[in-house]
Design a protein that fits this description.
Largest sheet: 4 strands, mixed
Order of helices and strands: EHEHEEHHHHHHH
Number of strands: 4
Keywords: Detoxification, Transferase
Enzyme class: transferase
Catalytic activity: RX + glutathione = an S-substituted glutathione + a halide anion + H(+)
CATH topology of the largest domain: Glutathione S-transferase Yfyf (Class Pi), Chain A, domain 2
CATH class of the largest domain: Mainly Alpha
Radius of gyration: 18 Å
GO biological process, one term: glutathione metabolic process
Strand content: 5-15%
Protein name: glutathione transferase
Length: 228
């Protein structure tokens, strides 16, 4: 679908920008993908998100939409009748539940993963990665209860929780490279093992998730820049 009035200000390394890209892909929308230099932010970016000054920002015509979860909901709402799958459930309770777990992921998973990757001492890393393991066990349980035996949290199709979680897959693979341990354990999280494969190979996601080795280099550069 030609939508030349759509621009996404983001970054290839950002799970939050990836989140918006996947939503745009599910809806079959064409857009201009603009990679922001966060060390020298563009005027367009600063004008579009003057409050938080964070990526991503979706620009739709003369409107700027900020914050990745809000962007996903906006995309789903505006293009709900274009013949593509809905991202959020139709039932009000299920929508509320999806938003709850999306917020949980951004709180618990993001912070434990980020803090574990960039902690300066071994004990802190261990603590945060133990917290991450607990989060993944919880999400295994949520997947088993919400999927109805299908591939995704949303059932047969990728939904809001899948996007909220799946945008971190490449960073979880970075964690695997750093620690030598699998993020998803066949014994403890077998459903997540299958889910991750189904998500990463879905046509709407293929080509969007960052390459792990490239992200490892980026993470190492970030770690080196942290004051000792």
């Amino acid at each position: 679908m030609a939508t030349n009035d759509l621009k996404l200000l983001g970054g290839w390394f950002s799970p939050f920008a990836v989140r918006a890209q996947i939503a745009l892909s599910i809806k079959g929308l064409d857009y201009e993908n603009i990679v922001e230099n966060l060390n020298s932010k563009s005027d367009l970016f600063l004008q579009s998100n003057p409050v938080y000054k964070k990526i991503p920002v979706l620009i739709h015509g003369d409107k700027a939409i900020c914050e990745s979860a809000i962007i996903v909901e906006y995309i789903d709402e505006v293009w709900k009748n274009n013949g593509t799958p809905s991202i959020l459930p139709s039932n009000a309770y299920d929508r509320a539940s999806a938003r709850f777990w999306g917020a949980y992921i951004d709180d618990k998973l993001y912070n434990s993963l980020r803090n574990g990757l960039f902690a300066q001492d071994i004990e802190s890393k261990k603590k945060h990665f133990e917290e991450l393991a607990e989060v993944l066990l919880k999400l295994e349980d949520v997947l088993n209860k919400s999927s109805g035996g299908k591939d995704f949290f949303g059932g047969e199709k990728i939904g809001f929780v899948d996007i909220a979680f799946g945008c971190y897959l490449s960073w979880l693979r970075v964690k695997e490279k750093f620690t030598g341990e699998k993020a998803f354990d066949e014994a403890k999280t077998p459903s997540l093992v299958k889910w991750a494969e189904a998500f990463a190979t879905d046509p709407a996601v293929k080509g969007i998730l960052p390459e792990t080795d490239k992200l490892v280099e980026y993470a190492l550069a970030m770690a080196a820049a942290i004051p000792k």
